[in-house]
Amino acid sequence: MTAFKDLAQQRRSHRKFTNEEIDAEDLKLILRAALMSPTSKSQRVWQFIVVDDKLSLEKLADAKNLGSQFLKDAPVAIVVLGNPMQNDCWVEDGSIAAISMQYQAEELGLGSCWVQMRGRGLDDGTTADTVIRGILDIPDELNCLCVVAIGHWTDERKPQSEDKLKWENVHLNKF
To answer: Which residues of 140-174 are buried (b: 16+ CB within 10 A; e: fewer)?
Structure first.
C-alpha cells in the first residue's frame, strides 16, 4: 500500500490513455472507494454511471465546449450525479466521492481526470447536464456534477513539487 502522503504527491490528472481495458476488480475497487466516501449526514445519496461504451464516451466528450474531448479515448468514465432536492450537500458529497475514486485509481497505477460538467455547456446555451441526461437516460431529479475519466495513462506526469506548495495560503487562527 502506498503511503497517503506519497499518493497525494503522485496523483496528477491524466488525459491520454492506452486502449487497454480496466480490470473488473480494479473498477470495483474504484467504485468501492466512492461508495465508502464520507457524505453529509451519512446520506450516501449520490449515483454513479459507469460508461465504457465507445459511442457514449464520444457523445460525453461533446457535452461541453472545452476540456472534455479526451473522454473519447478513455476506456472508462464514471458520471457522478446528485439530487439537489434530496441533499443540499450533493456537490460536496459528489466531489468527495470523485476524488476518492481518483486516489484509488492512482494507488492502482491508473490515471484519471475530473471533467467538470456542473455549470458548463455549449455555445448555444445547452447545459452539459442536459446533454448528458439525454445520452444516459438520467432522471430529471438528478444533476451531473462531473465525469471522471479512468485508464492506463500514456502521458508521463511528474509528482507534485514540494517547492511549489503555497504554504503562504495557510493561516493560523485568523487571516
So the answer is: eebbbbbbbbbbbbeeeeeeeeeeeeeeeeeeeee
User: pLDDT-based confidence at 1, cuts 50/70/90?
Assistant: confident
pLDDT tens digits, one per residue of 128-145 = 999 999 999 999 999 999
- Summarised one tens digit per residue, pLDDT across range 54-68 is 999 999 999 999 999
